[in-house]
Amino acid sequence: MKTVGIILLILLVILYVVVLPLAKKKYQQKQLVDMQSFLNELSVGDQVMMNSGIIGKISRIDEHIVHLKIAKDTIIRVDKHSLIGRYNEEK
């Protein structure tokens, strides 16, 4: 009975120390690849959302800066990495 508990404890420690960090690292790498793909596919006219919640339409893309039109005659410059995704209004 005591050996079963020790084996179970060893398995839990291995899971916590080895398996969970590997799974987390793989998930983070997938997110990084997805974000890089999103940033590379951006084009003028896309409607996007920033991590601050601001929604705008891309009017120009430079190397690291995106120009977003957020209102009539209002264009802001933001870093590309502050964008979190495309925004589609549900009607």
UniProtKB/TrEMBL annotation:
Pfam families, alphabetized: YajC
Picking any one GO biological process from the record gives: protein transport
Top-rank lineage group of the source organism:
Bacteria
Listed A to Z, the keywords are: Cell membrane, Membrane, Protein transport, Translocation, Transmembrane, Transmembrane helix, Transport
Extract the signal peptide range: none
- The question of whether Transmembrane is a record keyword is answered with yes
Check the record and name the SMART domains matching this protein: YajC
Q: Where in the cell is it found?
A: Cell membrane
Which GO CC annotations does the UniProt entry carry? plasma membrane
InterPro entries cross-referenced by the UniProt entry: Preprotein_translocase_YajC
Q: Where are the transmembrane segments?
A: 6-23
Q: What is its main location?
A: membrane
Membrane topology for this entry? Answer: Single-pass membrane protein
Query: Which NCBIfam families did the record assign?
Result: yajC
Give the protein family. Answer: Belongs to the YajC family.
Q: Could you identify this protein by its name? A: Preprotein translocase subunit YajC
